[in-house]
Amino acid sequence: VQLVESGGGLVQAGGSLRLSCAASGSIFSIAGMGWYRQAPGKQRELVARISSFRSINYADSVKGRFAISRDNAKNTVYLQMNSLKPEDTAVYYCNADGVRTYQSGSYSSTNDYWGQGTQVTVSS
Known about the structure:
By secondary structure, this protein is mostly beta strands. Helix content is 0%, strand content 62%. Strand 9 and strand 10 (106-107) form a beta hairpin.
Protein backbone atom coordinates (compact mmCIF):
# COMPACT_ATOMS: atom_id res chain seq x y z
CA VAL A 1 0.00 0.00 0.00
CA GLN A 2 1.30 3.44 -0.93
CA LEU A 3 0.07 6.86 0.08
CA VAL A 4 0.95 9.70 -2.28
CA GLU A 5 0.41 13.27 -1.10
CA SER A 6 0.22 16.47 -3.11
CA GLY A 7 -0.71 20.10 -2.67
CA GLY A 8 1.78 21.50 -0.19
CA GLY A 9 3.68 24.72 -0.78
CA LEU A 10 4.33 28.27 0.33
CA VAL A 11 1.45 30.62 1.06
CA GLN A 12 0.98 33.94 2.82
CA ALA A 13 -0.89 34.16 6.10
CA GLY A 14 -4.62 34.20 5.46
CA GLY A 15 -4.26 32.16 2.31
CA SER A 16 -5.49 28.68 1.44
CA LEU A 17 -4.07 25.37 0.35
CA ARG A 18 -5.63 22.01 -0.47
CA LEU A 19 -3.82 18.78 0.28
CA SER A 20 -4.67 15.49 -1.39
CA CYS A 21 -3.61 11.95 -0.53
CA ALA A 22 -4.37 8.90 -2.64
CA ALA A 23 -3.91 5.37 -1.34
CA SER A 24 -3.09 2.64 -3.83
CA GLY A 25 -2.50 -1.09 -3.72
CA SER A 26 -4.64 -4.14 -3.17
CA ILE A 27 -6.88 -2.29 -0.75
CA PHE A 28 -10.09 -3.88 0.45
CA SER A 29 -11.03 -1.34 3.12
CA ILE A 30 -9.67 1.61 5.08
CA ALA A 31 -11.08 2.46 8.47
CA GLY A 32 -9.78 5.99 8.80
CA MET A 33 -7.82 8.50 6.76
CA GLY A 34 -6.29 11.59 8.18
CA TRP A 35 -3.62 14.23 8.32
CA TYR A 36 -0.92 14.76 10.90
CA ARG A 37 1.71 17.45 11.02
CA GLN A 38 5.13 17.90 12.53
CA ALA A 39 6.80 21.25 13.00
CA PRO A 40 10.54 21.53 13.69
CA GLY A 41 11.35 20.54 17.24
CA LYS A 42 7.80 19.39 17.94
CA GLN A 43 6.03 16.07 18.10
CA ARG A 44 3.80 14.87 15.29
CA GLU A 45 0.20 15.81 16.03
CA LEU A 46 -3.19 14.93 14.62
CA VAL A 47 -4.72 17.63 12.43
CA ALA A 48 -7.87 15.87 11.24
CA ARG A 49 -9.20 12.38 10.70
CA ILE A 50 -12.25 11.04 8.89
CA SER A 51 -13.63 7.53 9.24
CA SER A 52 -15.19 5.46 6.51
CA PHE A 53 -18.56 6.50 7.95
CA ARG A 54 -17.61 10.20 7.72
CA SER A 55 -17.08 10.66 11.45
CA ILE A 56 -14.61 13.54 11.76
CA ASN A 57 -12.16 14.73 14.39
CA TYR A 58 -10.22 18.00 14.25
CA ALA A 59 -7.46 19.41 16.37
CA ASP A 60 -8.78 22.40 18.33
CA SER A 61 -6.21 24.64 16.64
CA VAL A 62 -7.70 24.08 13.16
CA LYS A 63 -11.43 23.90 13.89
CA GLY A 64 -13.36 26.33 11.73
CA ARG A 65 -10.41 26.81 9.35
CA PHE A 66 -9.66 23.33 7.96
CA ALA A 67 -12.04 20.85 6.38
CA ILE A 68 -11.31 17.19 5.75
CA SER A 69 -13.18 15.10 3.20
CA ARG A 70 -12.86 11.67 1.70
CA ASP A 71 -13.70 9.85 -1.51
CA ASN A 72 -14.05 6.20 -0.51
CA ALA A 73 -14.29 5.00 -4.10
CA LYS A 74 -10.91 6.58 -4.87
CA ASN A 75 -9.31 5.88 -1.48
CA THR A 76 -8.44 9.55 -1.38
CA VAL A 77 -8.54 12.07 1.43
CA TYR A 78 -8.44 15.85 1.11
CA LEU A 79 -7.62 18.64 3.51
CA GLN A 80 -8.84 22.12 2.65
CA MET A 81 -6.87 24.62 4.70
CA ASN A 82 -8.18 28.17 4.90
CA SER A 83 -7.12 31.22 6.91
CA LEU A 84 -3.66 29.76 7.26
CA LYS A 85 -1.41 31.03 10.02
CA PRO A 86 2.38 30.94 10.37
CA GLU A 87 1.93 28.41 13.18
CA ASP A 88 0.42 26.00 10.65
CA THR A 89 3.87 25.67 9.08
CA ALA A 90 4.91 22.02 9.25
CA VAL A 91 5.40 18.85 7.28
CA TYR A 92 1.97 17.34 6.77
CA TYR A 93 1.69 13.56 6.68
CA CYS A 94 -1.19 11.52 5.35
CA ASN A 95 -2.22 8.48 7.37
CA ALA A 96 -4.46 5.53 6.60
CA ASP A 97 -5.40 3.38 9.57
CA GLY A 98 -7.13 0.04 9.77
CA VAL A 99 -6.18 -0.83 6.20
CA ARG A 100 -7.14 -4.31 5.06
CA THR A 101 -5.84 -5.65 1.75
CA TYR A 102 -7.10 -8.50 -0.41
CA GLN A 103 -4.69 -10.57 -2.47
CA SER A 104 -4.81 -14.05 -3.97
CA GLY A 105 -8.07 -14.87 -2.20
CA SER A 106 -6.88 -13.80 1.25
CA TYR A 107 -7.58 -10.81 3.44
CA SER A 108 -4.76 -9.28 5.43
CA SER A 109 -4.85 -8.20 9.03
CA THR A 110 -5.25 -4.47 9.43
CA ASN A 111 -2.25 -2.15 9.24
CA ASP A 112 -1.52 1.56 9.30
CA TYR A 113 0.34 3.42 6.56
CA TRP A 114 1.97 6.83 6.19
CA GLY A 115 2.71 9.09 3.28
CA GLN A 116 6.10 10.65 2.68
CA GLY A 117 5.03 14.07 3.90
CA THR A 118 4.48 17.39 2.17
CA GLN A 119 5.81 20.74 3.36
CA VAL A 120 3.39 23.55 4.13
CA THR A 121 4.97 26.92 4.83
CA VAL A 122 2.91 29.95 5.83
CA SER A 123 4.71 33.28 5.73
CA SER A 124 3.68 36.22 7.91
